[in-house]
């Protein structure tokens, strides 16, 4: 059994652990990730991601963080720079340090003074948002 593999069950089939919606996956300030990210909980981005990010619970983009790709989540709190579409089923918060270069699709939106949006806004009910499936 490898370090990162799931322990086998008595039947020999690996056991899949239940996803923790409060688990936080972090892209540290000194990290650059190329490729899509997917998480069942929270994704906190302090570095750079070149690819799409999908988090079932929340995406936190710290000041200094950069995403070149689309974001899909329940709630997005943006303090860094996004080049792509942000889609959230509940809400998006664009903080004073944020710059969004693309569209935002969400039923609730907060843009703090100083936050920048260079794109369109579609305020849609959660039921109307596209689902991954």
Question: What does it look like?
Answer:
- There is one protein chain.
- With 133 residues, the protein is an all-beta fold.
- The chain has one domain.
- The chain has strands spanning 24-27, 32-34, 37-39, 42-45, 48-50, 53-61, 66-68, 71-78, 81-83, 86-94, 99-101, 104-105, 109-111, 116-117, 121-122.
- The strands form two sheets. Strands 1, 3, 4, 6, 8, 10, 12, 13 and 15 form a nine-stranded parallel β-sheet that branches. The protein has a six-stranded parallel β-sheet with strand order 2-5-7-9-11-14, with no helix packed on it.
- The chain is globular and about 55 Å long.
Please give the share of residues in helix.
under 10%
User: Which residues sit in consecutive blocks of at least 5 with pLDDT less than 50?
Assistant: none
- Terminal residue distance: 32 Å
Main sheet characteristics: 9 strands, parallel
How are helices and strands ordered from N to C? EEEEEEEEEEEEEEE
Quick summary:
The chain is 0% helix and 46% strand. It has 133 residues and is mainly β.
List its salient traits.
0% helix; 133 residues; 46% strand; globular; nine-stranded parallel β-sheet; six-stranded parallel β-sheet; mainly beta
Task: Please describe the topology of this protein.
Blueprint: E1 24-27, E2 32-34, E3 37-39, E4 42-45, E5 48-50, E6 53-61, E7 66-68, E8 71-78, E9 81-83, E10 86-94, E11 99-101, E12 104-105, E13 109-111, E14 116-117, E15 121-122
Parallel strand pairs: 1-4, 2-5, 3-6, 4-6, 5-7, 6-8, 7-9, 8-10, 9-11, 10-12, 10-13, 11-14, 12-15
């Amino acid at each position: 059994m490898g370090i990162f593999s799931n322990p086998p069950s008595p039947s020999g089939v690996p056991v899949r652990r239940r996803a923790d919606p409060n688990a936080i996956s972090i892209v540290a300030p000194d990290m650059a990730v190329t490729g899509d990210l997917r998480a069942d909980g929270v994704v906190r981005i302090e570095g750079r991601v070149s690819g799409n990010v999908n988090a079932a619970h929340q995406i936190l983009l710290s000041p200094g963080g950069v995403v070149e790709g689309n974001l899909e989540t329940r709630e997005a709190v943006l303090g860094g720079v996004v080049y792509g579409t942000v889609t959230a089923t509940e809400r998006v918060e664009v903080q004073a340090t944020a710059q969004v270069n693309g569209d935002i699709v969400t039923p609730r939106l907060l843009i703090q003074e100083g936050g920048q949006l260079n794109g369109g806004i579609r305020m849609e009910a959660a039921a109307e948002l596209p689902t991954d499936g």
